[in-house]
């Protein structure tokens, strides 16, 4: 009997890579983690075989994955894109960067991710979204919190959907905060938590705003779905928001909710709603209202 | 011989209302300024007849304007939109709010401004953009700085144009910062200077980013054109940017540059470019490059 093939994990920062490794262990699947230097902390991964790899050391990364018999792999966690100069690409990296081309490297995040996924595939790996390996990472449609959005909140959610969609078309972000019809903040590369942090000062009196976070229309569905978790709820509550609206699971696409039980109980404790929605349906309801 | 009709000025915060009053005085035109309480500072307006008016006191505002024989008037300066509850509308305000309707009041800034301009017109006033009274407030096309954008900066400017246009369609902002193809920040209601303030931490190594600020496609051309000035240049330099790109004058539409000589000399001192462009032409050049 041969051991099951290990799941490869290219791990950036944040808790997402750890949750993927946990899910694999629960499923009895071995893991090999390539930790991106400066982003994933080796002290978090002592339970799994792992190696630390510099972001520009593409040849070393491929070698480590192959040495550990990795074929299926998941990219997870945040990596701040470095400047091209500071990447210090190794020989393999230079070869692939030339192939991928300037446009992907200097385009939006989505263009770069698609190029990375294509390269991994050509090298014989099978890159997957974490949600393809562990389907229950995606939240199902519905409102699992005690608080529910009222008609005003739904109007703010509809406005947020149209703003986030316009942004997504420009491959420039996927989140925004709307309060009483006003767009308080729009997310670029600062991240959702940083965007929420500035909303407390921008908010108006009266009913609080909503965070709307969407899957980008052109988003590489495999490796860059929106993620929320308890930290998102805490940041939303601190910003005076009334709730959070995300897209529900639709096949292998949707919103990854980390530590779902904690996320929901934090929302209930703070009186926030969490809505997992079909964005098209929400927009249509507004037109018919 | 009768005195020339005074120019009415509904003044919010910032230096813009003062520059309008200065320009009127230089042109030998009397001014009556209605200062929005909490935004315009009466100590700045001692050179002109003025009254302080609470934002919700619409009837009092109209009465003050009529008492001072105002017909032509300019809205200038920033007003943070209050919540509806904190407005404390007077009787006239309640009547007009009911007429303007919930959609304008709770829509984007642009929807509200259009409604305000319509109301002023129906009340017999003649609301104008500052640039309609003083055409030289708008910057002409060209690059008045010693530094000029190179090919990489032009690529960032083109990306910024497409992001800002998508945003403008959602009536949600008109500015963004792009560096090496990455959208570092997108402006909502925090204002350009606040957006620039967060860019220093988000910037990558290597060539700095550019600020792109556009006229919103649906923008009320009369009263809400983009404004830059020496503060914008200083904030852009502090954020590590290479330059600022805005739309040049096209009829009565374009970008208002406050204290132009100071703005240009600040840019030269910091090594930044200032480009006043035709955005369509810049996009087309990119496609043909």
From TrEMBL, chains A, B:
<keyword id="KW-0378">Hydrolase</keyword>
<dbReference type="GO" id="GO:0016787">
    <property type="term" value="F:hydrolase activity"/>
</dbReference>
<feature type="domain" description="LpxI N-terminal">
    <location>
        <begin position="7"/>
        <end position="137"/>
    </location>
</feature>
<dbReference type="Pfam" id="PF06230">
    <property type="entry name" value="LpxI_C"/>
</dbReference>
<dbReference type="InterPro" id="IPR041255">
    <property type="entry name" value="LpxI_N"/>
</dbReference>
<dbReference type="Pfam" id="PF17930">
    <property type="entry name" value="LpxI_N"/>
</dbReference>
<dbReference type="InterPro" id="IPR053174">
    <property type="entry name" value="LpxI"/>
</dbReference>
<feature type="domain" description="LpxI C-terminal">
    <location>
        <begin position="142"/>
        <end position="274"/>
    </location>
</feature>
<protein>
    <submittedName>
        <fullName>UDP-2,3-diacylglucosamine diphosphatase LpxI</fullName>
        <ecNumber>3.6.1.54</ecNumber>
    </submittedName>
</protein>
<dbReference type="InterPro" id="IPR010415">
    <property type="entry name" value="LpxI_C"/>
</dbReference>
């Amino acid at each position: 009997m041969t051991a099951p093939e290990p799941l490869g994990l290219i791990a950036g920062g944040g808790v997402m890579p750890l949750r993927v490794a946990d899910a694999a262990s629960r499923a009895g699947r071995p893991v090999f983690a390539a930790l991106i230097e400066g982003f994933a902390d080796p002290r978090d991964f002592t339970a799994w075989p792992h190696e630390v790899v510099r972001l520009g050391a593409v040849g070393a990364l491929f070698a480590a994955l192959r040495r550990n018999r990795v074929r299926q792999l998941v990219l997870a966690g945040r990596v701040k894109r470095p400047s091209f100069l500071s990447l210090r690409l190794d020989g393999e990296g230079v070869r692939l960067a030339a192939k991928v081309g300037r446009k992907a490297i200097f385009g939006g995040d989505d263009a770069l991710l698609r190029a990375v996924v294509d390269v991994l595939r050509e090298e014989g790996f099978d890159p997957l979204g974490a949600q393809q390996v562990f389907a229950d990472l995606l939240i199902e449609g519905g409102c699992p919190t005690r608080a529910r959005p009222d008609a005003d909140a739904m109007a703010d959610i509809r406005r947020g959907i149209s703003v986030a969609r316009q942004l997504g078309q420009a491959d420039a972000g996927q989140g925004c905060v709307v309060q009483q019809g006003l767009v308080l903040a729009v997310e670029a590369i600062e991240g959702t938590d940083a965007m929420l942090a500035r909303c407390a000062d921008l908010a108006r009196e009266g009913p609080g705003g909503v965070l709307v976070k969407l899957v980008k229309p052109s988003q590489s569905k495999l490796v860059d779905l929106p993620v929320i978790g308890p930290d998102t709820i805490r940041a939303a509550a601190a910003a005076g928001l009334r709730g959070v609206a995300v897209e529900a699971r639709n096949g292998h696409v949707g919103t990854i909710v980390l530590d779902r039980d904690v996320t929901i109980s934090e929302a209930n404790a703070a009186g926030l709603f969490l809505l997992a929605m079909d964005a098209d349906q929400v927009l249509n309801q507004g037109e018919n209202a």
